[in-house]
Design brief:
Radius of gyration: 19 Å
CATH architecture of one domain: Up-down Bundle
CATH class of one domain: Mainly Alpha
Shape: elongated
Structural class: mainly alpha
Number of strands: 0
Helix content: 55-70%
Largest sheet: none
């Protein structure tokens, strides 16, 4: 029993963020007229003072990133399901270790891709724009939760209801 709990916990720690992002991407509306559906995140970079050329390049990089990450995210999901089945079936240790190693390897590939695309995006920014981005991220505006609530760069989000106002 302890073995199952440990494997489940380890798997959860390794996999949570990529799977949440994949789920969020799959649930995005398909209407390209809405900010939420735009692949460049709407005008969330407006506070950086991006030129039209920079915006276009950001959009292109983001599309390439999504295209590159999609198969890796799906593989991560499939490996997670495989591991869950192995746990339920009381698979032997060697099978569990092999699946965990595959998960870890795929997770590293995802991280590598994200770093590569992050570097490409940062290379488009001027030093002033890079500084603004750092300050913005330090305020916690880089989180999925912030964007889900309609937050945009350079603006504080408005509370959705009275319970959030203080």
């Amino acid at each position: 029993m302890n073995h199952k709990w440990l494997m489940g916990t380890l798997t959860g720690l390794v996999l949570v963020s990529p799977l949440v992002q994949l789920r969020a991407q799959e649930e995005m509306p398909k209407n390209n007229d809405t900010k939420e559906a735009r692949s460049d995140g709407g005008d969330h970079h407006n506070g950086l003072g991006l030129t039209d050329d920079q915006k276009s390049k950001f959009k292109s990089i983001k599309e390439s990133e999504m295209k590159a990450l999609k198969p890796l995210m799906r593989k991560q999901r499939d490996l997670t399901l495989k591991l869950k089945d192995q746990i339920e079936d009381n698979a032997n240790d060697s099978d569990l270790k092999a699946t965990l190693a595959a998960l870890k390897s795929n997770h590293e590939a995802i991280k590598t891709q994200r770093i590569q695309f992050k570097n490409e995006k940062e290379a488009l920014l001027t030093p002033l724009q890079q500084a603004k981005m750092v300050v913005w991220k330090m305020k916690g505006h880089n989180s999925w939760r912030h964007h889900e609530r309609g937050g945009e760069f350079g603006r504080e989000h408005e509370p959705r209801d009275e319970s959030e106002r203080s």
